Automatic annotation (TrEMBL):
GO BP, one annotated term: phenylalanyl-tRNA aminoacylation
Gene (name only): pheT
Protein's UniProt name: Phenylalanine--tRNA ligase beta subunit
Every B5 domain range: 279-354
Superkingdom assignment: Archaea
Cofactor(s) in the UniProt record: Mg(2+)
HAMAP family, sorted: Phe_tRNA_synth_beta2
Coiled coil: none
SUPFAM superfamilies, A to Z: Class II aaRS and biotin synthetases (SSF55681), Putative DNA-binding domain (SSF46955)
Species of the source: Thermococcus paralvinellae
Amino acid sequence: MPKFDVAKADLERLVGKGFTVEEWEDLFLYAKCELDDVWEENGKIYFKADAKDTNRPDLWSAEGIARQIKWALGMKKGLPKYEIEKSDIVVYVDEKLKDIRPYGVYALVEDVKLDEEALKQLIQLQEKIALTFGRKRREVAIGTFDFDKLRPPFYYKAVEPEKIKFIPLNCEEEMTANEILEKHEKGIEYGHLIKGKPYYPLLVDSEGNVLSMPPVINSETHGKVTEETRNIFIDITGWDLNKIMLALNVIVTALAERGGKIKSVKVVYRDFEIETPDLTPKEFEVELDYIKKLAGIELSDEQIKELLERMFYEVKLENGKAKLKYPAFRDDIMHARDVLEDVLIAYGYNEIEPEEPKLAVQGKGDDFIEFENAIRELMIGFGLQEVMTFNLTNKEVQFTKMNIPEEEIVEIENPVSLRWSALRKWLIPSLMEFLSLNTHEEYPQKIFEVGKATLIDETKETKTVSESKLAVAIAHPRVTFTEVKEILDSVMYHLGIEYELEETEHGSFIPGRVGKIIVEGKEIGIIGEIHPQVLENWGIEMPVAAFEVFLKPLYKLSS
């Protein structure tokens, strides 16, 4: 989670009110942060804020925290409003950047008064957004410039690396693009994002002055903002237009909290034009009964409205629903639970009295969990070793390495790592990965897992369903279909269930040595010898036989 520093005096200047350090400890909770540390430096008190929500970059600065606290305390309420004046500034985007770094959005903020603390916050906010929300500048890279040193219009263009030469930030001499990637601190850190491309992205003004080489480094002569800067030009680039637009909204509204005046910029692409930033409020609708049912506290419709107005919402109550508008610098409202969370934050978690639940029954283990545990004991009795692998995976593991076409699975919208970018659909790939990491161990290797697989189900509220499955894999030089089938036979015998095998084709298994597992006419799993191509993909030199079955059908029949 992002951690960032703020000065107590700067926060209080933005809020318009002073507080004790102890009071600040509680106030930070309104901004989904915790006060991690307090220290004094040059006669000033500083706080280290620990943000607890990676989906709220608008709260990662003194401006964002102060704004949230002003609303939470009722000093202001409803939807924050920011005026945008149209400028005559134009940025032209080169179509050759399509496969390199295709999108850029821009804005001008005038009459900003930057002192030491304000400048620190601007730089820190840029870095935190680019590092966390922007996935180390891969998705979002931000540049800020002293507009008075620039000559619009601007050009975000693709340039051959050997033709690029400028003085990078914090340097005194010109360097070529490749020299920057090899020698400059930021070039070494972020150069891999563009290195090897036929063109590098470059932002220049009408006189050919280099502002920036996104996402790596700004220019020293035209890309440096100081305390004397009054008019700030902002450039944000990336792969997802919606994501970089959100980042732009966060930056410009933070500067507006310091008195800046926002001006829009026309961005011209080959096939379309846009005006940025776009601060049009977003909309959402929630059932009031849903809030009341899950809040755990008695709330009237008007109380819910008042609490939401303290969390940046414009609220209209109608037919048992709250029709909401919320700011364009937020992108975290995806479910009614997110609105409920805001209601409880505004109410104050510390104000909710805990209640001891009154239960008229005694607790006992869930029957299905007991069934899963019994299956585990059974498998251990067959001489297999239990493994526990991750539910998170990726399409390469689930499909490519298993020699089958890609299918639709549940993917994570903004994964921290591409390695953990989806929820698994079946378990055998996880067992194959485990075997591939243990090729140095003795054989035979006989493993099993009782674990969850996540499937898409449009009939569910979440559009997904989590299913419990049993997967078994055996690896040694002489393993056969028969050996793994004997284990399946024993499982079914102990559960008192009859099953059939039906011949099938599956890219993960050897043709003629793979079958569907059928119980009462329904397919509940698959069994077979793993295909040599799959073994090669995983770097496994031993034959492997495996099966996988859904457990709920077996549980229902054995109960």
